[in-house]
Every structure is written in structure tokens, then in C-alpha cells.
User: Which sequence fits this backbone?
């Protein structure tokens, strides 16, 4: 299947092309839905200003059983980090970024935030 170019809509309305439906949520999260698969491809993006000097960033959440080693993001030339994951659609998932195995960061563009048992908040993505 051909990849779609990023298209932004005012209210996140679907954009159809080549058998895929894409909803551009915000600068940090891009969701692509597939007609023939019950998954959503999510591109996670953490800007350089959120992780100054970071060497390693992991996406940790419900979709990977909070495994700190399962999804290590790729560092970009500009210092940002990015990764695409296919996540089962029709659910919402809590997640956070773990920076250099020491600091937790929420996604600035999450769909919402919910309190966690540690007195903070988790990012939530709805797919």
C-alpha cells in the first residue's frame, strides 16, 4: 500500500486515500487507519526541546505492557525522537516516554491525560 502524505484537518476529520484513512491529530501524534487491518499506525514524535541532550527514549504504555525495552525510539538529526507503531484499533491506551532510563515525560499532543497511582498523569491515545 502507498503511504499517504501528512494531511491536517481542523477537527481531525478522516482523509481517505489508497485504502487508508488518516487522521492528523497534532504535531506530535499521527494516526493512520487501514481498511483491511484492525490496527492503527501511530507515529509518535518527541521534539528536541522536550529531550535536550537525551541519548535514548522509549515509548512505554498499555500497548506494550509498560516494557521499558520494547519500543526504543529513533533519534533524528535535529535531536528529536520518532517511532511508528501499529496498535490495535478501537481502544485507548495510557503511555509515557522514558528518557535515558531516568525521566518520565508525557506527550505534549496526547488525546487526553489521566491521573496515575504515582500522583502524576499519564498520556492517553485513543485509536
Assistant:
Amino acid at each position: 500500500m502507498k503511504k499517504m502524505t501528512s494531511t491536517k484537518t481542523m477537527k481531525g476529520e478522516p482523509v481517505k486515500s489508497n485504502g487508508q484513512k488518516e487522521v492528523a491529530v497534532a504535531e506530535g501524534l499521527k494516526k493512520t487507519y487501514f481498511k483491511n487491518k484492525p490496527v492503527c499506525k501511530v507515529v509518535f514524535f518527541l521534539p528536541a526541546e522536550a529531550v535536550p541532550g537525551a541519548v535514548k527514549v522509549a515509548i512505554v504504555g498499555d500497548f506494550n505492557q509498560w516494557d521499558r525495552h520494547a519500543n526504543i525510539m529513533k533519534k533524528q538529526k535535529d535531536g528529536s525522537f520518532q517511532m511508528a507503531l501499529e496498535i490495535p484499533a478501537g481502544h485507548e491506551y495510557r503511555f509515557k516516554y522514558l528518557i535515558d532510563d531516568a525521566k518520565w515525560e508525557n506527550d505534549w499532543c496526547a488525546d487526553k491525560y489521566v491521573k496515575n497511582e504515582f500522583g502524576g498523569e499519564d498520556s492517553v491515545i485513543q485509536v
